[in-house]
Amino acid sequence: MNTLPDLLCLSHLRWDFVYQRPQHLMSRAARDRRVYYVEDPMFGTREAHLQVRREGNVTVVQPQLPPGLPDEVAEAHGRRLLQTFLRQEGVAAPLAWVYTPMQLPLLDGLATSAVVYDCMDELANFRYAPPQLRGRERQLFARADVVFTGGQRLYEAKREQHPRVCAFPSSVDVAHFAQARRDLPDPADQRDLPRPRLGFYGVIDERLDTALIGELARRHPQWQIVLLGPVVKIAPETLPRSANLHYLGMKSYTELPGYLAHWDVALLPFAINEATEFISPTKTPEYLAAGVPVVSTPIRDVERPYGEQGLVSIARDVDEFGAAVADLLGQNHAPRQRRADALLAQGSWDRTWEAMQAALVARPPLAARTGRLGQRGWTGGDD
After folding, report:
1. Fewer beta carbons within 10 Å, N or C terminal of the chain?
2. How confident is the model at residue 372 (pLDDT cuts 50, 70, 90)?
3. Domains of the chain by range and CATH?
């Protein structure tokens, strides 16, 4: 008999958005327990209700609320709807797994077996971040039993704010992306593009150095630059345009190896700004698992360990970026790939999930409790 508590995940990312850390971890959680994945609310309905759909052992819950509600009223509606639904589902004292501090009020008055803050980004540094986000995060630190960070740089920023912080950098499903090393069909929307091809996939937003991409395309018209992903928080008309720049839209996780199989170099062309100071791009090990050489701007969690180990080329401006790409296009990548494979073999999402569970079990004992914002879950020393 399964005695694991149900898991209640509060996320700012839509389940059907770019497949990344929350989806990887919650899919693994759902192997042996029910998972309730609660998205940010949508506003526009006449009456408040929950939109619920089942995807195997994952139940995706999206509050639908009337427009124009004051924040406190909207939060009260969401909390009432969610907690009523959880009672109807027979959910008692779930493990709360929080990605966004803004959803913390949903836990007010709810009995939980434990609270995990899986801090995958410094959300307060993102464009259009709510002004109350930093205060909510302080409340979440006071409520959380354990804090996980999505990278080493983020760990360094958070480790003094909670007595138990563990770094769990981005992992990878090697078998999935290693499909790109086989002779997969070239997807129809890039099939007719000449080589060499440079590629990027992910969210296209303020974190991307669009000026770098535009200038790289201008200086090297013989290179075809493919960008996959949704455009978010920036106006599409502000993106650079040229005959060798190709915006092919969002692709599913399943489709990505097919695109990677026909790229010559993979790109991490991130801007160096507040929004990227703490990022740990999941696509770094994914590119490497696919067997595609990588050029990145100097993102700290890419430089360490991938740049330091010579697995990713680091470029600080468009001149270095172009030179690095040209160098990689003429290289034999087999030695680098062997070293990359050895590093990737040390980690996987399965191992990360198991290690997270071990870290949670190792915390000081805590009985299920009814929490109020600002209460401390437990006190204890560092690991």
Report:
1. N
2. very low
3. 7-171+349-370 (3.40.50.2000), 174-344 (3.40.50.2000)
